[in-house]
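Quick sanity check, t-SNARE coiled-coil homology domain-containing protein:
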Amino acid sequence: MSSAQDPFYIVKEEVQGSIDKLQSSFHRWERIPSDSVELGQLTKELLSNCESIEWQVDELDKTIKVAARDPALYGINELELEKRRRWTSTARIQVGAVKKAVVSGKELSISGPTNANGMRRELLRLPDPHQTEGSNHYHDNDDFISSESDRQLLLMKQQDEELDLLSASVERIGGIGLTIHDELSAQDRIIDDLGSEMDSTSNRLDFVQKKVAMVMKKASAKGQFMMLLFLLVLFIILFVLVFFT
């Protein structure tokens, strides 16, 4: 997306125009005598404009944060995002300096015209009139390189911390998985042992039932009764041996 079509640059131009008008009004405010009625009216106007521009800059900051979540979706890169952050930061500093100077206007007026202009220049971070354009250019480059390096270091530190947290989470999940696996294996062994015991007991009961049936056919009534009694005792003994030993 070209700059002419990008909504950020459209709003940026409007905000920049408002800042230029604000600074022009501020310079006019500096030249108004402290006992003038116009000074009070212009002071209210400047403070109102400062609040309006600050709100617009905050909204631009929000759009930058949204675009930073997925730069590719909006067709921009990290360098462009950093450029936009620097502009909003500079705009906020300029507006804040004007606001601070206007609020403390009485103290600046008492200090005298020369001191007042010097203090206001410091508040607005205006370049010294004798400073060359080349020195400004190199200063901006140094600031950009320094801020970019610091930001990259901060990002790397945050990524390292996130990787450490992720590694710890993976280790915890792995430990829980091994514990669950061991518990399931133990339960499977218990179930297998119980199934084997049940099969063995069932086979023994079938064998006893068959023997009982054979003996019942051959024995007399008294013999059958004795045999039943004997088998009952035998069954009790087998039951005790199977389930209590």
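Posting the structure with no commentary besides this: Confidence is low (pLDDT under 50) at residues 113-139.
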